[in-house]
Amino acid sequence: MYNQNNPPNYPYYSQQQHSTSPPPLQHPIPTHPPIQMRDPPSSPSPPTQQRMTHQQQHIPHQHPHQHPHQQHIQQVSTDYNMWNDATTQMGMQFGRSAMMAGSEYVEKNINRYVNYPALKYYFKVNNSYVAHKIRLLLFPWRHRPWSRLVKRSEQNGQMEGYKPPRDDINSPDLYIPVMALVTYVLLTGIVAGTEHKFHPRDLGVNATTAFFLMILELAFIKGGCYLLNITSETSILDVLAYSGYKFIGVIITLLVSLIAPFWIVLATFIYTVAANGFFLLRSLKYVVLPDTTTTNTVNVPQRQRRIHFLFLVAALQFVFMYFLIK
Amino acid sequence: MVLSIGQIIYVILLVINAIAILNEERFLARIGMSSHIEPGYGDVTSFKSKIINLISAVRTLMRIPLIVLNILVIIYEILLG
């Protein structure tokens, strides 16, 4: 109906555009706000019909006395604009305040449960750090030294903590583990897809399994630290980062398994497990055996037991990575 | 290996149940891991005393929450499992 009625109006518009006055009815929306407001929202078709009849009624009116009507239209449109502006402003203000309140609420609650600055430290990475770290994870054999750089305060040289990952390649970060975990989950989907047995449910299952294995390793390391009476200031996030680095090796193995025969995959798997175990052995040394040179409280059998625990953690990488690849 | 979050919660719950169910007089005292045998005997930081400490902590702390959690899980399993 709209399409049928509209074409006869076009010549009229074009005529009017030839005259000096600007076309008043080219924007039908601002001219009829009251009708739109008064319309009962019962059905979608009657409003359009009413609008059409209204427009048609206007058209013969307009020709004889154009100026008053145009003023009226302009007034209506300015009124509408003002009304529109006021509501927009009000809506914007309301929305802004609501959003601010919401974000404030979220921030407050996040800060209550998550130590935000401590978490931020683990994401202070840059490109060269990530590239070097991945290279280190795959070829850890010749690397040296393994100790983390200590950040000292500028006044008295006191130790304030460790330098962030972008200044220190030995520092643990959470960027690589998070990205590797996501990549691993997607890659398992691709591997399943090449074997034509992909199901979307598997993505969730793999993600949960990987997550559970990380939690298990975290619990193992922390429980071992508790039982062996290791009181170092390493946070849970450090251990989580170290346990997340094994996804790099898993990703490499999965990528190789897409293109290579079985024995190459097996060799890659063994190599990445060995590299990851060696990396953990060297990196977790400062967690498990903190400052053995300065403090003599650790007696010889306990130190021996800790070294065994360290080797056990490194050997468990084989089990975890096997479950991840399977 | 298929694991869902519900199964992980079950595993954690069952392990805590297993620790909490160990009887002080009948079992732990017999294998020499009772918590009130050695107050001052041996150092506090040894491997064994740590385990004893952990077990007694779980037994003391988790008793009431475990009752509630087990009842919830049993009701859920009967109705929907």
TrEMBL record, chain A:
GO terms for cellular component: COPII-coated ER to Golgi transport vesicle; endoplasmic reticulum membrane; endoplasmic reticulum-Golgi intermediate compartment; Golgi membrane. Residues 1-75 are annotated as: Disordered. It is a multi-pass membrane protein. Has a role in transport between endoplasmic reticulum and Golgi. InterPro entries: Yif1_fam. The lineage of its organism: Eukaryota, Fungi, Fungi incertae sedis, Mucoromycota, Glomeromycotina. PANTHER family: YIP1 INTERACTING FACTOR HOMOLOG YIF1 PROTEIN, YIP1D-INTERACTING FACTOR 1, ISOFORM C. Keywords: Endoplasmic reticulum, Golgi apparatus, Membrane, Protein transport, Transmembrane, Transmembrane helix, Transport. The keyword Transport applies. It is found in: Endoplasmic reticulum membrane; Golgi apparatus membrane. GO terms for biological process: endoplasmic reticulum to Golgi vesicle-mediated transport; protein transport. This is Protein YIF1. Residues 21-33 have a biased composition (Pro residues). The chain crosses the membrane at residues 174-193, 205-227, 247-274, 307-325. The keyword Coiled coil does not apply. Residues 60-70 have a biased composition (Basic residues). Its main location: endoplasmic reticulum. Belongs to the YIF1 family. It comes from the Eukaryota. Residues 1-20 have a biased composition (Low complexity).
UniProtKB/TrEMBL annotation, chain B:
One of its GO terms (cellular component) is Golgi membrane. It is found in: Membrane. Its main location: membrane. It comes from the Eukaryota. One of its GO terms (biological process) is endoplasmic reticulum to Golgi vesicle-mediated transport. The chain crosses the membrane at residues 6-23, 60-79. Keywords: Membrane, Protein transport, Transmembrane, Transmembrane helix, Transport. It holds the Pfam family Yos1. PANTHER family: IMMEDIATE EARLY RESPONSE 3-INTERACTING PROTEIN 1 (PTHR15858). This is Yos1-like protein. It comes from Rhizophagus irregularis (strain DAOM 197198w) (Glomus intraradices).
